[in-house]
Design brief:
The chain is mainly alpha-helical. Helix content is 70%, strand content 0%. It starts with 16 loop residues before the first helix and ends with a helix.
């Protein structure tokens, strides 16, 4: 009798960088599962760099870095008060230094983001590796947080579109440019702590954390409940830290 030859299991199709970026928004589990095969992250990072540079250029043209610094100082009453106590000459020098610094930081923000993402990946790695004994690598988690951060690009695009449409830049800040969180409607001058706390619950930040949780479940192969607990546990820590810093310095 003829015996049927064993058919090897079909491998999951490998995704290109473009497919992985697209699937983050439509089928995130496919992207994050593919990171176990190849943890490259140049695709989403290149996209972040391009959008970031264009965004900053639009802000420079429509608002100006001097104005953004002035607007940011309104959210930091203590620093604004210290500045007001300076002599006119010293105040102007301080504002010029702040403006120059803001320009360099804004254009170089993708590099700063890489550092932030590396810290996030490191915290996730330690939590998963030693907290739940997950079989995961730092490289895969690093790629995960970069892909998971892609929804933030929509916030930059919304801010750009609003400025190009003629919305006034009198209250514009890079930290909270559009009304995607309840903190946008809080006066930071009179309620800096509430402003910091409420601003944390941003639509795109929450979207990112959901993607991080999905990514952890796929990359580390842990239960969904565990993945969400790790992701939103660190999110809660970040909110408390940010609110505490606002209370301390404002």
């Amino acid at each position: 009798m003829a015996t049927a030859s064993a058919v090897p299991p079909q491998e999951t199709a490998h995704l290109s960088e473009v497919q992985r970026v697209v699937n983050v928004f439509f089928s995130p589990s496919k992207t994050f599962t593919d990171l176990r095969r190849n943890a490259s992250w140049w695709g989403p990072f290149l996209l972040v760099v391009i959008v970031s540079i264009v965004y900053v250029a639009v802000v420079d043209q429509k608002v100006g870095f001097r104005k953004t610094v002035e607007n940011q100082l309104r959210t930091q009453p203590k620093q604004a008060d210290q500045l007001e106590k300076m002599s006119p000459e010293d105040r102007e020098k301080n504002m010029q230094a702040r403006t120059t610094g803001a320009k360099y930081v804004s254009y170089g923000f993708p590099v700063i983001l890489l550092i932030i993402w590396a810290v996030m990946a490191g915290l996730l790695y330690l939590t998963l590796k030693f907290g739940v004994s997950a079989n995961v690598t730092f490289k895969a988690l690093f790629a995960l947080v970069i892909y998971a951060g892609l929804p933030g690009l929509f916030k930059s695009l919304l801010a750009m579109l609003s400025l190009l449409a003629g919305v006034s830049g009198d209250s514009f800040t890079f930290q909270n440019p559009v009304a995607t969180n309840p903190g946008y409607f809080v006066d930071p001058t009179t309620n800096p702590v509430l402003y910091a706390f409420a601003s944390s619950f941003d639509i795109f930040a929450l979207w990112t954390m959901v993607l991080v949780a999905i990514g952890i479940a796929c990359v580390a192969k842990v239960k969904s409940g565990t993945a969400y607990a790790v992701a939103f546990g660190w999110f809660a820590v970040a909110i408390l830290f940010g609110t505490g810093m606002a209370a301390l310095f404002n």
